Amino acid sequence: MFDYETYKLIWWLLVGVLLVGFAIMDGHDMGVGTLLPFVGRSDNERRVVINTVGPHWDGNQVWFITGGGAIFAAWPLVYATAFSGFYWAMMAVLWALFFRPVGFDYRSKIQDPRWRSTWDWGLFIGGAVPPMIFGVAFGNLLQGVPFGFDDYLVSTYTGSFWQLLNPFALLAGVVASAMLTMHGGMYLAHRTEGAIQQRAATGATLAALAMVAAFVGAGVWLRFGGIEGFVITSVIDPNAVADPLSKTVERSADGWWRNYARLPALWLLPAFGVAGALMAAVLVRARHTLSAFVASALAIVGVIGTAGAAMFPFVMPSSSMPDASLTVWDSVSSHLTLGLMFWATLIFMPLIVVYTSWAYRVMRGKVTVAQIQANDHTAY
């Protein structure tokens, strides 16, 4: 139905939608986990916090799994290269995520304060570590990742794990961590009341301010701190068979800003990121918690969209072999594969949205200490 170029653009948008969906849906679960040891002061209060996300956190993992599957199927070279270069970082994410299912399932099985406190901190690790690592990964993408291809398109990563932990990437990690902590706090404020709600609102507000400061700081650093972007200088045929070695790429001081110069409307994305976070902080302090959650989600769209718009058409630029940088045009699967996946997505994506909406409608309302005390044998 569509030509190859159109499918390439569609899948760039769909992968972006999946990343945003993961950040909004599974991100608020992780944000709640990050706030758990600080918002809940007693065992019952912590059970309240856990029960706000306990019934649906695993359903929200669908966005994470689907996003990874989409990258694997739509951008196989990106998947292979990223999981090679970021191997230990991805392993750290998986190790952290291990704490989530066992923490939710086993935390309240034994009435021992030490047992429950241990799992509370395990849920904190499962909520706090992945966003930080994902942010660090994005920070490295903006700087370029040291990899190259041989004549058989076998990628070789020439960096090390510790190179990933550079100052700019760590600042990007702070942006991601604060963003999802803010989002989780907004959700927690909406689902709780009393002292827990007040602490959640305070934590969300502080995280929102930290996110704005780090986000603006990262933008200034990216523009004036000597970090060069990437620019394709050769002619590209968007309908050609994918070949990452068929182009010429150069580094430029304004590389990541050229799309904003060509299309000034893109500046709405960073504006949404900043304004959404600040508005969410104001709304949650005024007890307009649902509106605050929506504003927080808008901030997430703005932040992720800002990075995506800056890098387009690059997906994974190479700092050691710029011509081998992976882009929307040359890192994708075949025309047939993208087409089949597109139609499958048109069928299954609405089902996921409808089911998720129904589940949240059923589980709407406040979770209170009184409910926890009256239902002492609930799963969480």
Q: What labels would you give this structure?
A:
380 residues, mainly alpha, two-stranded antiparallel ribbon, two-stranded antiparallel sheet, 70% helix, globular
Account of the 3D structure:
By secondary structure, the protein is mainly alpha-helical. The chain has one domain. The chain contains 15 helices and 6 strands. It has helices at residues 4-39, 43-53, 57-74, 76-85, 87-97, 99-106, 113-143, 161-164, 167-191, 194-224, 258-262, 268-285, 289-311, 335-362, 369-374, and strands at 147-149, 155-157, 229-232, 249-252, 314-316, 326-327. The strands form 3 sheets. Strands 1-2 form a two-stranded antiparallel sheet. α12 runs antiparallel to α13 (289-311). It is globular and about 65 Å long. The N and C termini lie far apart (48 Å). The model has no long low-confidence stretch (mean pLDDT 91).
Write the layout of secondary structure elements.
Blueprint: H1 4-39, H2 43-53, H3 57-74, H4 76-85, H5 87-97, H6 99-106, H7 113-143, E1 147-149, E2 155-157, H8 161-164, H9 167-191, H10 194-224, E3 229-232, E4 249-252, H11 258-262, H12 268-285, H13 289-311, E5 314-316, E6 326-327, H14 335-362, H15 369-374
Antiparallel strand pairs: 1-2, 3-4, 5-6
